[in-house]
Amino acid sequence: MARRTRRQSPLQRELLRLLRPPVPQLARQVSEQAAFGLAEVGHSHAGRPAAEVLPALEEAVRSVGGKPDRAALVEFAEQIEAGENPFL
Question: How far apart are the C-alpha atoms of 7 and 29, rounded to whole Å?
Answer without folding.
Answer: 26
